[in-house]
Specification:
The longest helix has 40 residues, at 112-151. Helix content is 80%, strand content 2%. A two-stranded antiparallel sheet has the order 1-2. The protein contains six helices and two strands.
Length: 194
């Protein structure tokens, strides 16, 4: 059986495997909501006629620019701060793990490779977050814009699509949250295991 100190350390590690990703996801939800009006304002860069998007070359050319601006709005500033804080949580989790081994084993020394593994896992987390954000956020937004321009969708229809993509609804989470929730949960747990 574990001593009380060891059990407390184990409980803290296990709790953090859930609480850290949940806290990150909550911050993503807040970012989605806070940036929604800024994202919607970008849709005014499209040309409309009688409330519908005009199918023309300028609008087709604006698709990529708007997509990149939306990505920048959602993944810069506070998002970068939250990712930085997440990386500090990786360090904190490693410190708790080292504390466990120090408590459980006499004369425990942290292997040099352990810190290198931690740094590698942090780099992988950032890369995975960027890739996932492209897959679940940027690419669907680009496709929604393209479809809206090509079909001459109404501005209201496009707003509804972007509302679902950005903020989600009762059945669907917003794309920024979706893009990051599983990645953070998986990479945090894998880093801890490594």
């Amino acid at each position: 059986m574990f001593s009380e100190d060891l059990q407390r350390i184990i409980d803290e590690k296990v709790n953090r495997l859930e609480s850290v990703p949940d806290a990150f996801a909550s911050r993503m939800v807040a970012i989605q909501k806070a940036k929604f009006n800024d994202v919607i304002a970008l849709l005014d860069e499209l040309e409309y006629s009688n409330g519908s998007i005009i199918l023309n070359q300028p609008n087709l050319l604006r698709i990529e620019a708007i997509t990149e601006q939306v990505k920048e709005l959602l993944t810069a500033g506070e998002y970068e701060t939250v990712v930085g804080e997440l990386l500090q949580e990786f360090d904190q989790q490693a410190a708790i793990t080292f504390k466990y081994f120090d408590e459980a084993f006499n004369d425990f020394e942290i292997p040099t490779i352990a810190n290198q593994i931690l740094q590698q896992k942090k780099r992988e987390a950032v890369i995975d977050l960027l890739n996932s954000t492209d897959q679940y956020l940027t690419n669907p937004m680009r496709q929604a814009l393209s479809n809206a321009v090509i079909t001459g969708a109404s501005r209201n229809d496009l707003l509804d699509v972007f509302d679902l993509l950005i903020r989600g609804d009762a059945d669907t989470v917003g794309r920024l949250e979706r893009a990051t929730r599983q990645v953070v949960s998986d990479t945090f747990a894998l880093s801890d295991a490594a």
